[in-house]
Design brief:
- This protein has a single domain, classed as Alpha-Beta Complex (Maf protein), CATH 3.90.950.10.
- The chain is about 30% helix and about 25% strand.
- The longest helix is centred in the last third of the chain and has 17 residues.
- A seven-stranded mixed beta sheet has the order 2-1-3-4-5-6-7.
- The protein has about 200 residues and is an alpha/beta fold.
- Keywords: Hydrolase, Magnesium, Metal-binding, Nucleotide metabolism, Nucleotide-binding.
- Belongs to the HAM1 NTPase family.
- GO terms for molecular function: dITP diphosphatase activity; ITP diphosphatase activity; metal ion binding; nucleotide binding; ribonucleoside triphosphate phosphatase activity; XTP diphosphatase activity.
- This is dITP/XTP pyrophosphatase.
- It comes from Desulfitobacterium metallireducens DSM 15288.
Amino acid sequence: MKILLATQNQGKVKELQEMLSDASIEVLSLRDIPDWEEVEETGSTFAENAAIKAHAAAERTGYIVLADDSGLEVDALGGAPGVFSARYAGEPKDDERNNDKLLERLQEIPDEERTGRFRCALVIATPEGQEFLTEGTVEGRILRVRRGQEGFGYDPLFFIPDFGRTMAELTMIQKNKVSHRAQAMQKAIPILKDLVHP
């Protein structure tokens, strides 16, 4: 049985394939779909954007599809950058410029008020129009300087008190156990297995 993960990121595909290793399910990515055209994400929440991607891909391909949307919410910024996390500093997407803008916006904010979270919404959509939503969050604090070489995006600024490290200082194995995306994926696995092997 094949399912489609609506991403070009082979790392995400490998991660999901490992989680499904006992279920005889092959995970495809958008790289496996000829002439794939990106879907415009017009939602105002992570869940809406994930659903837009998932349903579009399920309709076009006939596969059961998983699509996720995720980003950073900072309390002192009213939840920004939120759904605009990847393009916070404008086009083209640039992690360094996004981090610089975040640090600039938080310059006057005291350390104890620099709280926030990584949030992930993951939607499973079937060609018949069924939809299932799972979510994951990781709470943390935004540092004033980058720390760590792992990860991407805002990981070097996102400090997780439970670990005493930033997301970028965790190993990939540690991150894949605690991340917002990993949490949402773990909740999605039983739903996927039921859909594929009812």
